[in-house]
Amino acid sequence: xxxxxxxxxxxxxxxxxxxxxxxxxxxxxxxxxxxxxxxxxxxxxxxxxxxxxxxxxxxxxxxxxxxxxxxxxxxxxxxxxxxxxxxxxxxxxxxxxxxxxxxxxxxxxxxxxxxxxxxxxxxxxxxxxxxxxxxxxxxxxxxxxxxxxxxxxxxxxxxxxxxxxxxxxxxxxxxxxxxxxxxxxxxxxxxxxxxxxxxxxxxxxxxxxxxxxxxxxxxxxxxxxxxxxxxxxxxxxxxxxxxxxxxxxxxxxxxxxxxxxxxxxxxxxxxxxxxxxxxxxxxxxxxxxxxxxxxxxxxxxxxxxxxxxxxxxxxxxxxxxxxxxxxxxxxxxxxxxxxxxxxxxxxxxxxxxxxxxxxxxxxxxxxxxxxxxxxxxxxxxxxxxxxxxxxxxxxxxxxxxxxxxxxxxxxxxxxxxxxxxxxxxxxxxxxxxxxxxxxxxxxxxxxxxxxxxxxxxxxxxxxxxxxxxxxxxxxxxxxxxxxxxxxxxxxxxxxxxxxxxxxxxxxxxxxxx
Length: 513
Hints:
Radius of gyration: 22 Å
Number of strands: 12
Strand content: 5-15%
Shape: globular
Number of helices: 19
Low-confidence stretches: 1-34
């Protein structure tokens, strides 16, 4: 297996990139008008000019949407790039809309992967996707360049709690926010989940259907829950896969995430690594494997490694580790091999070093970074007390260091973001068909406790718990999960009660000396 091979499975979310949308007691509404006005004719009557996508596997089109759905005549229009896979069977049953996680990931090509893995859904549905406002082939948000984004992760050690390091973190955060305000063209206040679901409903209308079914993993779970709440008459069946916990807001979700990354690392990855010590030579017990990780990290802290022109720091190692935890089958072995390469780069083939350097060079792409924070900082209010975040992140770094060390970096940006005017939305499941929720007990990113709260918040929902740890359960090697999702989307049949499915087994390593 090639180092850091990108997984083909659509459900894999971008590393470290989730959002829980606000869920506070109020109706979905504009802060000043109480509701979005009727859709103006210039949007409602536009025509989608379908042409082959660049990839060739789907049809694509572009639709115009107002920058602000609550004041559609104010400001320039935005472009939303949309895609579709036409149903292949004679008995087309409707439209299945899907979206990407992040926020910040592209959803344009997701229908091709989903239909390729599920002939039943490909036959029954027109499966449609889109790039959310701010993302990909849609109108982009622009903040800082890639070098500036890289500096968040390549400067020093995120575990460093010195006064100088903390001050530098806040300085970078303030500079990033200023870049966003300066370069975004006034777009920032309109990059919210609420605005995006109005885009989705226009898309539904332009497809000529009264109702859509919906599938969304990760942040797209929050997006789907918002859509169903704000447009309940236009949804038929809804699947939320490994949903980000939208019940308490993004700030609460961020504080909870270090625990779940650390939990997966210590309960799944380290025991797997120790079990395969004969292959990877990192220690025969989980404690020994963890000690190997910490020794490597300390070495990179004291002596950053020049790997084919990329300077590798301990932050790169932590980011690669958290990324590996999303999907054991695609990523555990890659990361174990990476540890060995970073320990003994002199023994690695030149192409392996080049590939590893390319994969590690940018922890987050600049475009992804911009949209991720635009949505997560804008969707819900944030505590702005820097002293609170210094204390909170110190505890996270000490107790759950793998992802806790990055907490101050993320929180400092949203703590300095312009105050949000996004409406508050309460997701209750009222007026909706029963929703199917999928969750894994050891999911590193969308932690299981949050999925339980999502399940409780959606009255009448069914929960399928997966005894595993990957992020994204559908089309991830569990026939039990795949069958339940396909049955529900095609026939409407849900499990009679909450149930459990076995997850995909942890991978067997390739034969290596």
